[in-house]
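Reading a protein record of the kind used here takes little practice once its layout is understood. The fold follows as a row of integers, each naming the local backbone shape at the matching residue. With these conventions in mind, the following record can be read line by line:

_____
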Amino acid sequence: QVQLVESGGGLVQPGGSLRLSCTASGFTGDIFSDYVMWWYRQRSGEREYVAVIFRPNSPAGYDDSVKGRFTISRDNDKNTVYLQMNSLKSEDTGVYYCKARDGGREYWGQGTQVTVSA
């Protein structure tokens, strides 16, 4: 069973930056690079798509609300995906989750809280 652990959340002032990490473990018969990695957030109600990355240095996808401010990246040697968040706004406040998906297999982390407040 693949396990995902997010870290790096916290309290930051508007305009500040945070870098979230999500480290995967528990692979059996597959490897981290097999998985497409996503970041979602939950502000109220459903989880919302934030960003996705397929391979290192490949074009990533972003929700319009974070485009130009957030950057997703991955290090397959460390089994880790990152979300660099700059120019944070109060509306970025929420619980951030990473997701790993490979065909029919999908795994979620437990989430990390990000609070943007003065």
The mean pLDDT is 94. The first strand starts at residue 3 and ends at 7. DSSP finds no helices and eleven strands in the chain.
